[in-house]
Each structure stands twice: as structure tokens, then as C-alpha cells.
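Bench notes, bay 3.
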Amino acid sequence: MTFWEYLGNRHQQLLTDAYQHASAVFQCMVVATLLGVLIGVVTYQSGWAGNLATLSTSTILTIPSLAMIGLLIPIVGLGVPPTVIALTLYGLLPIVRNSIVGLRGVDPSLVDAARGIGMSRLTRLLRVELPLAWPPILTGIRVSTQMLMGIAAIAAYASGPGLGNVIFRGLASLGSANALNQVLAGTLGIIVLALLFDAAYVLIGRLTIPRGIRV
């Protein structure tokens, strides 16, 4: 069976796996973004706190993904829980680091002007600092998403959802007729999803970042 014949015969299952893969990454990115930006907001004004946040999330990223999921299985079981926890933790570093860099890069004179017209600390953060820090934050989100697309394939080790199951089935049956087709289909599916997500982020950037800031 050729690769194209394999795709034609298994397209429904592949689409289901691709949807589950994209859904898992998207949901984990939402959680990682909220946590990462919150950590950045809490720590960016303090040098040691910002360094600690960056160091902690960097340390998490050094743990091999297979080991991370393996350690989580005895605690939360198989399936979705270890996948969500692992992906969320792995997605933190670029978002935390870029949030801190972006917030520290806001022109202090703009913050002082906002304070001068009576804006509260929360209002300054929401209406001045975070909007100006949004471009680097969005870049961090894009980087995290690309990483998680690949890492999510390892979730199949814990019976997690996604295209990793297709790849693992192919690797487990090397030598059989469709083994290579399965690995290739899963790999190309992840690449296509990563490109689609990145294109969506480019569009979001064009819609949410003023032209002057983009330049």
C-alpha cells in the first residue's frame, strides 16, 4: 500500500487523532499562557524573583519528556491528566521569560504618565504595560506552541490523545506493510498542525499589535 492509499483508507482516524492533538496543545497553551503571564507580572519588578522564575521554568524544560510523563503516571494515572500537566509545565519557560522581558522593556515614562493621570496599579498594568509587552509575549506563545506540538507526540506513551499514537503504532510494528506509512502520516500531521497554529499566531499578531509597535 502506498502512502497516499494509506491516507485515503485511514483519513477519518487520522483526522480524529489530529483534532485530539491540536485540542490538547491548544488547551494546554491557554493554561500555560495564563500561568506564564501571571508569573511574569508577579516577578518582573524584582531582579531575583524574575531570575528565580526563569530558572525554575528552565529546570522543568531540562527534564526529558518521557521521564516527566513516566513520573506522572503513578500519581495521576494514564491518559489525559499526565499529558495536560506535562505539556503545561513545558510550555511555561518561553512565556514566562518573554513576559518578564516585555514588561521590563516598557518605557518608564509611559508608566509615570499613566500614574500621573490617576491610573491605579491594576489599570496601568492592563491598559499600558501588558499591551506594550504583548509582542514579546506573543512570540513566547508561538515558541511554546511549536515545542508542545512535538512533545505532545510522547503523550502516546501514557495512552494520551493525538498523532503520537499513530507514530508509536508504526514504530511498534516496524517491518510490517504500513509501519512507515503510519510514522510518516503522524509526523507530517504534526508538522502541518504546527504550521497552521503558527499562521494563526501571525494573524493574531496583525490584528492585535498596532503597526507602529510591529515596526
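Next record in the batch:
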Amino acid sequence: MGTHGKHRTHLVWDWNGTLLDDNDAVIGATNAAFCEVGLAPITLEQYREMYCIPIPRFYERLMGRQPTQAEWERMDGVFHRHYTERRDACGLTEGAEELLTQWQLGGGSQSLLSMYGHDQLVPVVRGYGIERHFLRVDGRTGPSGGSKARHMERHIAALDGISAERTVIIGDAVDDAVAAAHVGAKAVLYTGGSHSRASLEAAGVPVVDSLAEAAQLAEQIAD
């Protein structure tokens, strides 16, 4: 297939749990939020089995009932405060930086879309020294906890001259596949983040164990 395919394929990378290896920060912050409402702490394995979008539904699975609006706001606030404290200790996923460089050198285009707040996301990505690899870096605007689908719509529309048909979303959550389907793009899901392999496979898209595999597969399925 050669470089021709690379020129045509655009990748939209997810951030948390995909390019950024932040599982420890997420679990620590989640357990701090649970502590707020008297829930027992959970392990990474439990988190991966139960995690879903929207986040209040994830909390409902663990609480056995829907959180009240006040509880949700309190838990969300505690989560973000604790996550921010722990975030600086997180590194990029192994091989991520090399992969971004290689894709760009091969003539491929790429962008980043995250459900992490836009104003926090941009300086963080810049701090890892990888901003130059992306045509755009977009984070969530508006309230947290929802789906990526609408954000993906805006992201693709803002990518000048790039069609959804030649785009592959690489992320670690079923919601990434939902967002891809919403705009007519393809998706490859990575097992190193928020979901177990079993829950990712339920999305009906390819599931891989490394970002390198994800990029390789993206090139094949976008052709």
C-alpha cells in the first residue's frame, strides 16, 4: 500500500488513556470522588469493567442508584481537583512520541480531540512537546460527563479539506467508536486505557493492545 495510503489517512487521537498514560491518576481521582459519597475504592480492573459514558451512569453502576445532581457536581469537582494534582506525574504512553513523529514524516495528518477541558488540555499537550504534530488540538467545551459525538462533529468540520471517510479515530473508550460512527469515520480502540478488552470488543470495531498496532490498522481500514 505504501506512502500513498498514509497521505490519505487522517488520525484523530484521543488524549487521556490513549496518548497520555494516566490510569493511575484517573483511579486515584475516581476513588477520591467515591470517598465523597461513602463508596469503597475500586481497582483498575473494576474500573475497566464498569466504566461507561455518560459518567453519571458509571457512578450509578457503582452506587446502585443514580447520583443526585448535587452528588454528581461534588464528585465531578473532587475528581477534577485530584486528577489535576496527579496529572503531572503521568507520562506519554510508551512509543507515542515516536509514532506521532513517524506518522507525520510519512506524510500522514493527525489531530487530537479530548473530552478533557480545552483550556487545561492545550497547555498540557504543549508541555509534552508534541503539539507540533497535530493540525488541531481540541478539548471539551461546556459541561463534563457527556459523549464525544458532538465534539467530534465540530472537530472534523474544523479540519480543512479532511473528510470523515478518510479519518480514523484512535481511542481507549467505546465512546470513541460511537463518536466515529456519528460522523461516518472509522475507529480503532486501544486496551491500555479506561475499558477492558471485552467491553471494547462489544463496540464492533478493531481492538488492539498497542498504539503502533492502532496506527498500522488505521492505515489499512481507511483505504
